[in-house]
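User: Can you predict the 3D structure for this chain?
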Amino acid sequence: MARNLDLTALRAFVTVVDVGGVTRAAGLLHLSQSAVSMQLKRLEESVNASLFDRTGRSLDLTAEGEQLLSYARRMLELNDTIWAKLTDAGLEGEITLGVPHDVVLPALPPVLQLFNAEFPRMKITLISSFTKALKEEFTRGNCDVILTTEEPGEGNGETLCKLPLTWVGAPGGKAWRQRPVRLAFEERCKFRAGVQAALDAAGIPWEMAVTSEMSRTIDATVVADLAIHARLAGTQMEPLASIDHCGALPDLGENHVNLYVAESLRGEPAEALLRMLRQAYSGLGSALSQPRPVVTTTLPVDFRERRSS
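Assistant: Here is the predicted structure, written as C-alpha cells:
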C-alpha cells in the first residue's frame, strides 16, 4: 500500500538543514520549536530512519538524511511551481492576440517584451496565421485583438500604417530576370492572386515554382534563388532582400496593417497593449516614409585623360 510523505514535515526538515538549527527554522516557518521538532520526529518515523546524527553538538545529517534531502528539495520545488501556476499567485489574466505571420517581424517582439516587463502576470497567447483565418477567429470570439493586412477600403479596422508591397528574393539573386517569372507563395497567402494579376496586366508570363502552407518552405525556395516572393516593405528579414528590378516587374500597390479589438476587452493591461501595438506599427510606416539621404559620389578623373587635355 502506497504511503504519502508529509510536505509540511519535509519543508521543516529542509529549512532546519538550510539554517543549521531548529530555533532559527521555527522563526522562519512561524512555528514553535516544539512543533518543528515534532514534525522532524514524525518524518523520521514515516521513513523509519534517523535523519540527524545526534551524538555530537552539531546537527549533522545521516546517510539517510542526505539522501532524503535531495528528494525533498525537488518535491518542494515541484509543489511550489504547481501552487504558483494554479492559484491567484500566478496569472492575472490572458489576452489572445492574432497577427499575420508576415508582419510579426520586426515590430511585434519588442511589443511582447515590453508588455511582459510591465505586466508579468498577464499572459499573451499569440496566434499567427493568414488574415482571412484571423478575421474568422475574431468573429467567433476566439481572439481579443487581431492585426490584419488588407487592401485600401477592405475591412473596417483601425489603420495603423500603410506599407507598399514589394518584390523580394535572394540577395544578389537572378530569379526575377527569368521568364516566365517563377513565384513562391503559400496557398492561402492573400498577396498571391494580386501578384499574379499584376504580372498578367504587365504581360509578364509566370509560373508557380512552389506552393506550400509552410512559410519556411517558401523562404527556403526564395533564398535558394529558385523563385521570388512579395512582402510588405519593412517586414522582410534576412536573408531575404528587396529586388531592385528598375521597373522590370510591376508595381504591387500598398496594403494597410489594420487593428481590430473585441468590445469585451477592457482594463489597464489591454489599453497598454493596444498603445504599444499602435506605436510599433505606426512607427514601422513612419520609418518607410522618411526620405533617404542623397549621396553624391565624385568619380576620380583618369590621369591619362588629364594629361591629354
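The chain has two domains: 7-86, 91-289. The chain is about 40% helix and 20% strand.
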